[in-house]
Amino acid sequence: RKEVEQDPGPFNVPEGATVAFNCTYSNSASQSFFWYRQDCRKEPKLLMSVYSSGNEDGRFTAQLNRASQYISLLIRDSKLSDSATYLCVVNIYGQNFVFGPGTRLSVLP
Amino acid sequence: DAGVTQSPTHLIKTRGQQVTLRCSPKSGHDTVSWYQQALGQGPQFIFQYYEEEERQRGNFPDRFSGHQFPNYSSELNVNALLLGDSALYLCASSLEQLNGYTFGSGTRLTVV
Predict the structure, then answer these.
(1) Given phi > 0 = left and psi -120 to 50 = alpha, else beta, which region is B110?
(2) Phi and psi for B90 in degrees, rounded to 5?
């Protein structure tokens, strides 16, 4: 089993839609969690950290369920500019960041 | 405030050759991690440097080696290049891992 797994994608959604990405991780000792966004042929960029209580940043909401070892990212009112690959990342403090394979999103006009 | 800078941006090498990639971390960051990203996949961890020592290593052969200098900049060296080494090589820097990594724009290596 891979350390971090994500929805295989791609997701093709119309503008304005709500889209949810799911991620599971295998190491129960994982302590910090992130969502990164990667545009085509560019480097990953930090979208948001994921906190135990859940957190929101504008149209983006991240949730963490430690018991189920599950992380989610919800994008509301999707924009064309949201088209990218979304990478789930988990970390045990003092160790490396482990990336999921990513889920590609295309927002269509 | 300069972010993470990597050089070169693109590189073409022949099988069997050696390559050195360079990274300058974001100002104030002391930890540098290197990742390999093949097309359509997530980044795979190569190794991490802190205080000029390799602190962790991923599942990569000894052909992959690195170094960190006193100014926190880092190099990734790959010997005896294989076609399968063709990928985007990403450098990431951090100060406290809880705050996430900052990535450079990467070096795209093509081995022919």
Answers:
(1) beta
(2) -110, 135
| Stretch A53-71: mean pLDDT | 95
For residue B82, how many other CB atoms are within 10 A of its CB? 12
**CA–CA–CA angle B19, A43, A52 (5° rounding):** 125
**Residue ranges of B 26-55 with Cβ closer than 8 A to chain A:** 33, 35, 41-45, 48
How far is the C-alpha of A103 from the C-alpha of A86, rounded, in Å?
5
pLDDT, residue B98, reads: 54
Q: Which of A97, A100, A102 sits opposite B101 (nearest CB)?
A: A97
The C-alpha atoms of residue B1 and residue A109 are separated, in whole angstroms, by 36
- The residue with tokens 């997701």 is A11
Residue A2 has pLDDT above 90, yes or no: no
What is the rounded distance in angstroms from the CA atom of residue A3 to the CA atom of residue A95? 14
Whole-number Cα distances in Å, B92 to B52, B102, B103: 15, 5, 4
**pLDDT of amino acid B101:** 86
Q: What is the pLDDT of residues B84-94, one digit of tens each?
A: 999 999 999 98
- pLDDT, one tens digit per residue, over B31-58 is 999 999 999 899 999 999 999 999 999 9
Q: Are A88 and A70 in contact (CB under 8 A)?
A: no
CA of B2, closest CA in chain A: separation in Å? 15
Q: Rounded distance, CA A24 to CA A3, Å?
A: 8
